[in-house]
Amino acid sequence: MYIDIHNHCLPQVDDGAGSPEEAFAMVEQYRQNQIEEIIVTPHFHYRRGQTCAERILEETFRFREALQRNGISFRVHTGNEIYYSHDVPELLSQSKVLTLADSCYALIEFSPDELFTKMRDGLYQIIISGFFPVLAHAERIWAFHEDMSRLCELAELGVYIQINIDDVKSGADFRMKRFVKTAIENDLVHFLATDAHGSRERTPQVGKDLTYIRRKFGEDFLKRV
Question: Following CA atoms 27, 31, 37, 43 in sequence, which dihedral angle do they give, to the nearest 10 degrees?
Fold first, then answer.
């Protein structure tokens, strides 16, 4: 059984599942792919939308109740995908944005073209505020493609690296797959996640990718991430 720490399955709160019915369809896809537990991570973006923590908690409670009423055994925890801005450490400290499953780990997103120095400094501010940043879909950030040692520097700083499962194989071009392969071989991948947004596009249907990862990198790697 696997746990998905990054997805947009919670219905009608961001650009993910557009209805309870679609969220239920995503849950069924998760279960088909041996994923029985997820942390929902609606976007928190200072320009594009900020679903408040209270609403996420309320909607997650309703979602759990609906699953239970329908006899579906599936665990759902709360979180956010937090787009970094200078006030994120303070927002985390005030619980105005949500950590992953009420832990000290926070899923942090940056623009693909973000400067490495800004990322490093921002992530360090999160660390000294008492949280463990998990860098969302690091394979999308071009600064790391230019210099893999930057990813190593962040890991040594205390940053955890998350890669989207389909960018290991099915959803990636050659350059992306080569980057992810090198990151895995250098122990620079700490979490794999779906980043699923729907039941028809960007779905949790990652069974083929998990089979490939198991064959290429081994079951022990999958258990670690």
Answer: -40
pTM: 0.96
Closest CA to 161 of 200, 201, 110: 110
Other beta carbons within 10 angstroms of residue 198's beta carbon come to: 19
Query: What does pLDDT average to over the chain?
Result: 95
Q: pLDDT by residue (tens digit) across 70-96?
A: 999 999 999 999 999 999 999 999 999
DSSP string, 114-169: --HHHHHHHHHHHHHTT-EEEETTGGG-HHHHH-THHHHHHHHHT-EEEEEGGGTT
Separation between Cα atoms, residue 188 and residue 133, nearest integer Å:
14
Q: How confident is the model at residue 1 (pLDDT cuts 50, 70, 90)?
A: low
Alpha carbons 124 and 93: distance in angstroms, whole number: 15
Pairing relation of β-strands 75-78 and 49-50?
A: unpaired
- 95 sits in the region (left: phi over 0; alpha: psi -120 to 50; else beta) called left
**Interhelix angle 53-69/20-32, nearest 10 degrees:** 70
